[in-house]
Amino acid sequence: MVSEPEPAGVPHPLPGAIGLSHLSAYDWEAADGVCGGSPHLHLVCTEAYVVTGGRGAVQTLSPDGYRDIPLEAGSIAWFTPGTVHRMVQGGDLRITVLMQNSGLPEAGDAVFTFPPEVLADPDRYAAAAALPPGTGPETAAAALRRRDLAVEGYLGLRAALVAGDNGPYLEFQRAAARLVRDKVPTWRALWRAGALATAERTGAQLDALADGEPAYLGEATAYEAAPTRLGGFGMCGRRDEYALPGTTLPYRGE
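Below the sequence we write its predicted structure tokens.
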């Protein structure tokens, strides 16, 4: 049995222990003539897009089938674990991303829709998913190759689903689960230190209020932060990040 690592503390999480980043959707044209990001899914995290500017869409694959959800300033779209999503650029699309279970996506809770032969080989998958450090031309070229490989697999999944065959989509989900299985102990520790600890803290506060002894209010304070890395290469676009524990540390490999 694999032992679980000790959870790291998350002293000042954002509300609900969410993750936060800002994206400007890629304007690279893909093989199908669409400009946008790298299709992928998350295994245990719900993700939300809050559109702050421009227009575009998010394409999704799920048991509901294929959907193309329009995005414009003020709109919100969110998708639950297992939903394949692809951000599509329509014109200066800018999004604030809210991510459940902050820390888990950066620890690998995202799997690209690479072709089946890549998904079947963990070493090959890792090499295709990784990016060189930094934000220069070499990293941009690697991010573009990664996006194109993800779109290649995605288009096959979408075509089958539209034709009424959900077999390839379901097999992709199973392949994604196999790829991340060994990460579960680390994810459990991050969840306990972040989202679970936050919920339990609220429970303790409710108990204190019920007892008429809200001493915890004496710890009230405020925090502030600004993005500490601008223009990183995320899955869907150029990504502004906050170097706060359990918020949006850079993706591994970037």
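Strands lie at 19-25, 40-41, 47-62, 65-72, 76-79, 84-99, 111-112, 229-233, 237-241.
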